[in-house]
Design brief:
Layout lengths: L2 E4 L5 H10 L8 H8 L8 E10 L2 E11 L7 E8 L9 H15 L4 E7 L3 H9 L3 E10 L4 E9 L8
């Protein structure tokens, strides 16, 4: 059985390893990763949260969401990352993590959530489409090393319940 819970300090070694081994993962600094564990933020307008999936054998996935809160406006939320290592794929873990981020964004009052992904990442594209995300644009030259366009996708929070 898969369990989703907030990221902890004890998870960081595994998450760092996964990120080094996944060419599609962002090159986040140690400071960025540690900041995901610390709930207090120096910027009350921007909040980032991270979750891990685990089963009896250990960690099986990782996700990060971000919200920008401006007084008088609904939060602007982004699904920053979903990472499931090869040994744990094709078990629905990615969808569970996406649903966790969608629920968090909805609890914050967001009506929609956005993400960018590498155009070549067809596996992730399929996951996000199954979770209700639709194509909303392209960011030319968004990624470097290697250079690649980003697909911009959006999901209305209510649509998140359509995961298959």
């Amino acid at each position: 059985m898969i369990h989703i819970r907030p990221l902890s300090n004890a998870d960081l070694t595994t998450v760092r390893s996964w990120m080094r081994e996944a060419p599609e993962a962002p090159a986040w600094s140690e400071h960025d990763l540690l900041g995901l564990v610390i709930v207090a933020s120096g910027n009350p307008r921007k909040t980032r949260r991270a979750w891990v999936a685990e089963d009896a054998s250990g960690l099986t996935g990782f996700a990060v969401g971000a919200a920008l809160s401006i007084p008088g406006a609904p939060p602007e939320c982004e699904l920053e990352l979903v990472l499931v290592p090869p040994h744990a794929r094709r078990r629905g873990i990615g969808g569970m993590l996406v649903q966790t981020v969608l629920a968090w964004a909805g609890d914050r009052g967001a009506k929609e959530i956005w993400l960018e992904l590498r155009e070549s990442n067809t596996r992730a594209l399929g996951l996000y489409q199954r979770c209700g995300f639709t194509h909303a644009g392209r960011r030319a030259g968004y990624y470097v090393d290697p250079a690649e366009d980003a697909l911009l996708m959006r999901c209305w929070i209510e649509c998140g319940s359509r995961t298959s």
